[in-house]
Amino acid sequence: MKKFLTMMALALGGTSLTLHAAELTPNIEAAKGKVAMCIGCHGIPDYRTAFPEVYHVPRIGGQNAKYIENALNEYKKGDRKFQSMHAIAATLSDQDIVDIAAYYAAQSASTPVNPQK
Ligand code: HEC
């Protein structure tokens, strides 16, 4: 029975991923409580406490929301390989990913660019 349920969950999970993506409404406000764990690496200009020089990380502020969503889903699934990003993406729900993608996409090109990036 347990195995059956697991199989069902996997089957449903597989299909709902694509369905959900279209249904989820990004919530930028909600993302503000979720990006704390990204800031340490993907420093946002407004958050000067970040230490981007420790890592060579891509700048994601101002990036296209769909691109960020895809990247996070790929890290989550392991299609894109990078250990720390996989570990982080694995903790994010579909809704988290949509929210965070919208949050970063909303960073404008005029946002002062952190010179370390
Ligand atoms: C431990 C440091 C670290 C943390 C924390 C971190 N990232 Fe990353 N992230 C990286 C690195 C390094 C890369 C580049 C990995 C690679 O080469 O694939 C990356 C890549 C990415 C990319 C792909 C960018 C591109 O241009 O392809 C996205 C999107 C991203 N991170 C989003 C996030 C989000 C959202 C969070 C918070 C939920 C987060 N990251 C937290 C280090 C981090």
UniProtKB/TrEMBL annotation:
What's the name of the protein?
A: Cytochrome C
Q: Has keyword rRNA-binding?
A: no
Q: Which PROSITE patterns match?
A: CYTC
Q: Which InterPro entries match?
A: Cyt_c-like_dom (IPR009056), Cyt_c-like_dom_sf (IPR036909), Cytochrome_c_Oxidase_Subunit (IPR050597)
> So which domain of life are we looking at?
Bacteria
Q: Which UniProt keywords apply?
A: Electron transport, Heme, Iron, Metal-binding, Signal, Transport
Q: Kindly indicate where the leader peptide sits in this chain.
A: 1-21
